[in-house]
Integrase catalytic domain-containing protein
Amino acid sequence: MSDLPEVRVTPSRPFLHAGVDFAGPLQILTTRGRGIKTNKAYMCIFICMATKAIHLELVGDMSTNAFLGAFKRFIARRGKCSHIWSDQGSNFIGANRELKDLWEQARLEIPGSLSDILVEDGTQWHFNPPYSPNFGGLWEAGVKSIKYHLKRILNSHLTFEEMSTTLCQIEACLNSRPLCPIDTTDIDSLEILTPGHFLIGEAPINIPEPDLRQIKVNRLSHWQYTQRLLQDFWHRWQNEYLSRLQQRPKWLKHIQEFKIGDIVLIKEENLPPGKWSLGRIVQKHPGPDNICRVYSLKCRDKIVKRSVTKLCLLPINGYD
């Protein structure tokens, strides 16, 4: 397992460097009433690379325009994001292209020193290699923290407003998780540092509600049901978070790197029976620690990038 990226260990303002991903879909009611149909909605998850604070936005679809709306709300409430990381989803690529055009147009229309300020306020996008979710482990963990439990407790449809409220309260729960003690010299001090301290100066809170987890769902009002969801989510996520603090199960062993010219198997989904995807290593892309985790391969007359987790050495070419 490599060292953490520089932005993960360099102090900075919250969300100055962030990762983003989508999760879902969720079935959302258009309004309350008998026979009302549902529409799909998605969660857009922003996570700070330095503080691990999480920001959630509910969006109506996964289009470029829907993401740009979520990104503008995120910037308006969290401030400038100078660097952002994501996978190579078409909505992210389209948003990056459109944001570049907007900043360039503004720079040309505003002459003088103000144009330089606009350049500094722009966002530089960084895309992970294709089919490599392990490169976005920080925000993938955030997606899992939310989606894994939410889909197990959500047994009734909510409206867009009710789901937005629930996600904001879930965001507060996630940003209240303990990171480390604030004062290690005072043995009587039990104050802890949380991601919320970097955002508002203290751990986020939710307005207290009676325990509704033992009450049947059909006896709860719509508002009480959203609070029941929050309480169920908190109970499940808190137990898992505490358990994960006790183990570090993956990527502890160094393996020998592939060599240029090696033929490898490429892990791909939806291949027909009896078909294999093969490629030949043509270029290595080592990281800051000089360990290569991304390779360029010649596959089907084109060059593609893949992470090492998607490549397998042929059995007869095993290294000593």
User: Anything to note?
Assistant: The radius of gyration is 23 Å. The chain has a mean pLDDT of 79. Residues 222-244 form the longest helix (23 residues).
